[in-house]
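User: I'll paste a sequence; please echo it back and then give the predicted structure.

Assistant: Echoing your sequence first, then the prediction.
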Amino acid sequence: MGVGEPQDLRILLVEDDDFTRVTLKAALERFGLTVVASASDAKSAITGAVDNGAQVGVFDLDLGPGPTGLDVAHGIRRLLPDFGVVMLTSYEDPRLFSTSLSELPDGAAYVVKQSLEDLGFLVEAIRGSVGTADRSSAAPRIDLTDPQVETLRLLACGLTNAEIARVRVVEVKSVEQTIARLAKRLDLSGNDQVNQRVALARAFYSLTGSRTRPERG
């Protein structure tokens, strides 16, 4: 079988958590895939892809402060137009991370970590990303508008309604209305045990696979 066919793919891993990166590398290699480079930041990822002739990248969306995994994927695609892209993230909708993210690179796969029942699905996504750079692609979207998603994220950050209004440059009344619509859309209602804001924050954590308060930025 010739170089570049699915079993011989040269893979780049981009993940800022050391344990996850090492574990994922070992798991993919057990499937017979070749991980030629791994990185935790944008500069190392781009260098690793180019210097090692990587053909496909598996990118975490959230790489901490600085460029996102999506930014890195676009940067590599500009240098390597046929580069395959797989976004592997805990965010069920990338807007939950930021509503100002760029679109997915053409042909990119978007895989939610919580939905992986076994690693075989990820392996197939990696193999399927080859030769798809000329095809359109779109990330999954939950049934919320951009203002609703941003309000939910800021609420989960611990901001008050007044602070959310300042960030979004709207009236406090508009924020209150958005929160009420969010609670209705997500089928959440406050009660004596769990108030509405706590319920919404928990919904955010569930949608992002996170147990900690998100960064405000």
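The chain is about 40% helix and 10% strand. The beta strands are 10-14, 34-39, 56-59, 84-89, 109-112.
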